[in-house]
């Protein structure tokens, strides 16, 4: 597997769908699929003001890279970009972009779904939801 | 033996700080380490799940901790 088919980024800067699409593009690609995660304005009826993302950076990067490697083995895709943001994000901002390219669309759809589902299980990144009247680490306690 | 404990997310609040230097009996497994920690910081028992990473890799309970390891508490992750 060629390492240069995977682009991993963990950053405090604004993420760019254009950069992800440009990375995965190639002449033998027939389709590009992206998953763009956005900060939602409410959780269980409570208004969310903002989210704070924190990462164990070296391991988050290596776990994201493992997902990229798994995706390349599992699906007929050409390239994948997995970009995640840390720090404080407001409603509507983008904490994650996953973009995959393939010769035929099905593989790229499946790869994006698998990658975001796995990221949410394995990558050591945590978010705290901040409401008007308090804050909570997401999924931490029952 | 000396080890370094890093705590992220809610565990940072539960153990009262991001980084702690700890002294453990040599040959301590991850499972026994968690028992020690939960006795000292009972709030950890409230977590939905608690995984442990050693030197940037997830490890099982039977994994033996070594001198100077970097041990990381991984409460339920919530990226994306």
Description:
The complex is a heterodimer of chains A (142) and B (80). In chain A, 31% of the residues lie in helices and 39% in strands. Chain A is an alpha+beta fold and 142 residues long. Chain A has one domain: Alpha-Beta Complex (Aldehyde Oxidoreductase, domain 3). In chain A, the strands form 2 sheets. In chain A, strands 3, 4, 6, 8 and 9 form a 5-stranded antiparallel β-sheet that branches. In chain A, α2 runs antiparallel to α3. Chain A is elongated. The termini of chain A are far apart. The model of chain A has no long low-confidence stretch (mean pLDDT 96). Chain B has 80 residues and is α+β, with helices and mostly antiparallel strands. Chain B has one domain: Ubiquitin-like (UB roll) (Roll). Chain B is 20% helix and 29% strand. Chain B has a 5-stranded mixed β-sheet with strand order 2-1-5-3-4. In chain B, a hairpin with a 2-residue loop joins β3 and β4. Chains A and B meet through β4, α2, α3 and β8 of A and loops of B.
Q: How is the biggest beta sheet of chain A arranged?
A: 5 strands, antiparallel
Mean pLDDT of chain A: 96
Give the termini separation of chain B. 37 Å
Oligomer: heterodimer
Number of domains of chain B: 1
Helix content of chain A: 25-40%
Order of helices and strands of chain B: EHEHEEE
Strand line-up in the sheet with most strands of chain B: 2-1-5-3-4
**Count of DSSP strands of chain B:** 5
Indicate the overall shape of chain A: elongated
Please tally the helical runs of chain A, counting DSSP H or I stretches of 4 or more residues: 3
The CATH topology of chain A: Aldehyde Oxidoreductase, domain 3
> In percent terms, what proportion of residues of chain B is strand?
25-35%
Q: How much of the sequence of chain A is in beta strands?
A: 35-45%
